[in-house]
Predict the structure of Adenine DNA glycosylase.
Amino acid sequence: MLQQTPVIRVIPRLEEWLERWPTPAALAAVPPGEAVRAWATLGYPRRALWLHSAAVEITERHGGVVPEDVDALLALTGIGDYTARAVAAFAYGHRHPVVDTNTRRVIARAVGGQAEPAPPSRGRDLAAMSLLLPEGRDESAAFNAAIMELGALVCTARKPGCEVCPIRNECAWRAAGYPAHTGARKAVQKKFEGSDRQVRGLIMAELRATRHPVTDAEVDGLWPDAAQRGRALDGLLVDGLAVRTPGGYTLPH
């Protein structure tokens, strides 16, 4: 839920989710459309389908217990390097490098002396974090969490709080006089207003709002541009977020 989504938006959804489905088996027992409906407006709703699929896989392969091995976690639908290592490190206490956007920024500045990190690279990012990680399990888990929090609260992207940073005297970027970033930049996402993502969101909201099929006429009324509307609807069908039925369209069942 936290992937590309602010914590303040996730907390109420997480609480509702865990109250309704406290275990993987509980989530696996309902249709995938219920997961998509409960996902509400968190965005990137394919994550809800992936989470449901992962719950089914955990129930069938692991007796309903989330695995602690990174390779077993990576074999689950929708689970990537960050999530697998975060679960192994924070839930089970294993020593693994956990790298997110905030971690990469802190390492780029404090160690590399760069204003911004280079575009993400699995091998390079994990290797850089591994070099810094303490040997002890408890210490490594604390370090993973600490560097994330440092990036999220102090070493922020736009207004880093260098004057209160606990590692300011060891920071290579500060020592170099805060040189500006001159390297490659991560691609900036197109604005939401008027985008296909907005149209997809409107259609998804209509599907979530009812348990009856949404008709073609109702879909047509959601957005004036027929070509863009059709493109968005086709994408939802391909992604498995919408299902065509004799009466129109529904969430997956």
